[in-house]
Amino acid sequence: MHHAFMAAVADDLATLGIATLRYQFPFVERRAKRPDPAELSHATVRAAVAAARKLVPGMPLIAGGKSFGGRMTSQAQAADALAGVRGLAFLGFPLHSPKEPSVARAEHLSRVQIPMLFLQGTRDAFAKMELLQPLIAGLGARATLTLLKDADHSFHVPARTGRSDAQVRHEMLTVLASWAASVIETD
Predict the structure, then answer these.
(1) Which DSSP letter does residue 35 get?
(2) Which of 125, 126, 130, 183 stands 20 to 30 A from 94 (CA)?
(3) Domain ranges of the chain
């Protein structure tokens, strides 16, 4: 949660009038290389959602995260709906490991029955476009995909594009803010 990207996302969302709650998974706190078992990760997501509900009772919630955090949030939602959460936003959904294309990590998404926003870089090694686009199309109207041209999994863009990482982040978060407003209004 202290990573420069996550801090920048939280700061940028604040300028758009969106509060965030950042948290860490236990394996990150322990500085372990291996992620925690799914059950512990899901419990961590549920604890974070409960903390957010307690901090801002009655406030509409959008849950999600960057990479692993987003995937664990979607798995938790698929297993048992997260109380008070109206939508899920993914900043770089990790569809597969680099060089191991597969859609197996996304099988649970068909059980998520709330709106989902996928914000993906077109150069994301963790999500081949030829796998991601049909997968999201198959989820129907509850899934929205926004592609960020030339961005990688960390939303970094090469200098040759003439765009900065901050510009890409602003584009991404403007989409997120608009999507979140529409989800909250239609709920």
Answers:
(1) P
(2) 183
(3) 4-186
> Quick one: which of 80, 78, 85 has its CA closest to 62?
85
The arrangement of secondary structure in 4-186, i.e. its CATH architecture, is: 3-Layer(aba) Sandwich (3.40)
Tell me the C-alpha distance between 59 and 85, whole Å: 10
Quickly tell me which residue has 């959602």 as its tokens. 49
| Beta-strand pair 116-121/61-66 | unpaired
The model's pLDDT over 42-96, given as tens digits with 9 standing for 90+, comes to 999 999 999 999 999 989 999 999 999 999 999 999 999 999 999 999 999 999 9
How far apart (Å, rounded) are the C-alpha atoms in residues 1 and 60? 22
Closest residue by Cα to residue 146 from 167, 112, 173: 173
pTM over cut 0.90:
yes
DSSP summary character for residue 63: E
